[in-house]
Amino acid sequence: MTLKKSLARPDWWMDLPDGADTRHYLGVRDSIAAHIENGDLGHNACLPSERQLQSGTGAARGTVRAALFQLEAEGLIYRKERSGWYVSPAPIVYDPTRWEGFMSYVKAQGRDPKTELLGTCEVQATAALADIFGVDAGATLYELRRRRYVDDRAVLVETIYVDPRLAPGLLDHDLDGSLTQVLKREYVVDVARNRIDMQPCALTQAEAAALRVKSGLPGLLVTRISYDAQGRVVEYDQEYWRHDALKVSVDIRVG
Amino acid sequence: MTLKKSLARPDWWMDLPDGADTRHYLGVRDSIAAHIENGDLGHNACLPSERQLQSGTGAARGTVRAALFQLEAEGLIYRKERSGWYVSPAPIVYDPTRWEGFMSYVKAQGRDPKTELLGTCEVQATAALADIFGVDAGATLYELRRRRYVDDRAVLVETIYVDPRLAPGLLDHDLDGSLTQVLKREYVVDVARNRIDMQPCALTQAEAAALRVKSGLPGLLVTRISYDAQGRVVEYDQEYWRHDALKVSVDIRVG
DNA sequence: AAATAAATCTGGTGTAAACCAGTTTAGATA
DNA sequence: TATCTAAACTGGTTTACACCAGATTTATTT
């Protein structure tokens, strides 16, 4: 008669510190996290495959995956579909009050920014858009979709809307860089006020595909509405960020 | 000879819209999400149990759980350990620039705030703390831990550090409300500047326990350093929020 | 009616095994 | 050498159990 499996002492038993949480997947998590924090694995280094980790830890693959999901939620690792798991690089620090634009603040942090224009078009304002811009529903707006990179890793996709009355012919300009600068230089349109919303979200179908991540991964939705001195809406921007790529930092004088 | 199981058409096959994603767990997700968005389930309503959903959808329990995790990441539902899954209430809107304090802005949104003092003590400043306060390592600091609720759901736990030199005897006051007001009223200490950091994180052991959620759940770490007019650090605050309880909204004039 | 004990229900964790569909790599071919 | 192809590998998804411990409810006792 054999010992019931659940009563047999598993071979990873002794790895667990005394009095510690006995959850196996946390043990696996800690072990991987230790390797990362120890510096054994540099930024963007590839982790052993799930099946290797499985045999290495003696856990079932489901358990190994639970540990990997945990580390992903913590922002320590990310994945490329069907390729592997990788160590997350340090996040970009984002200060909404210091409005310099993506290109300059990424560069200022010693990282390599890149913007890719995915497409532009003219759209009819939906009710929500019309409300934001203070125009009639159905009015024409410019829409541009861009993808932005840090060190060649896609970190956000954004959809920007601009009122053509403020920037006629905008789509003919070079939009691979700072849109704010184009507006300033070509149209003498200056941003005087920003309204920024941030909310944890799940990356849906379209965003996830554009970031080449699994749909449903956690992300951060940053919405920005820029106004000029007259209170007109200059730009409405929806940015979907990888949740591990961003750290928000604000410095505010209190009245 | 029987048909191989994986080739047999599963009984949920016809539920999937044409051309849609064939991933079963997303189908389950959509079905639950529809019920929520439809209003069949009000805020804080309890979902059917995992095993009920299982038989209701014909999926394995693991698949049902994948769907629930997805909805949790999206902030639509939350769980009480070993009790059930519940519909998330609307998030609180938080404006770091408008520094009124938790109690007042939660109330302003028609919700019911509550603060609970978990404990206070005097601690020796660690290197990191000493650096923030500009004191010597080992200097004494007040530490207070609090838990804050919205409509009787715990949404954040915080650890606050205060320099005793600015507010001697602080711990003898009533700290169940606004700390900023106590500092202002009792010590004539006014906050002139705030530095606020926000970063997605995983709720670790202690925070998760205090929020009565599973350790490792995604959260948002909001760190605030408050300075007075002389640039002295008045207060250093680490807030661990449930990720589904908060929406950050900032309105900024651009110089 | 209130306190207590037991049965039941619920999520939490773990195992094992398949099969699928992109990615990557190594080898064969032009 | 460059290109193409096929095999190997990787994560992605799903099934089906099993057992645990906390939460809840029910029945029982005081």
Brief sketch in words of this structure:
The structure is a homodimer of 255-residue chains. Chain A has 255 residues and is of the alpha+beta class. Chain A has helices at residues 24-38, 50-57, 61-74, 102-108, 127-133, 179-187, 205-210; strands at residues 77-80, 84-87, 92-94, 113-124, 140-150, 153-162, 193-202, 218-227, 233-242, 246-253.
In the CATH hierarchy, the architecture of the largest domain in chain A is: 3-Layer(aba) Sandwich
Percent of residues in helices of chain A comes to 25-40%
Principal-axes shape call of chain A: elongated
Helix-strand string of chain A: HHHEEEHEHEEHEHEEE
Question: Low-confidence parts of chain A, pLDDT < 50 over ≥5 residues?
Answer: 1-20
Distance between the termini of chain A: 77 Å
- Rg of chain A, Cα atoms, Å: 23 Å
Q: Biggest interface, which chains?
A: A-B, 40 and 40 residues
Strand order of the largest sheet of chain A: 4-5-6-9-8-7
Structural class of chain A: alpha+beta
CATH class of the largest domain in chain A: Alpha Beta
Number of strands of chain A: 10
Please give the largest β-sheet of chain A: 6 strands, antiparallel
Number of helices of chain A: 7
Query: Which oligomeric state applies?
Result: homodimer
What is the beta-strand fraction of chain A? 25-35%
**Number of individual domains of chain A:** 2
How confident overall, as mean pLDDT of chain A? 85
In the CATH hierarchy, the third-tier topology of the largest domain in chain A is known as Chorismate lyase
The CATH homologous superfamily of the largest domain in chain A is called Chorismate lyase-like
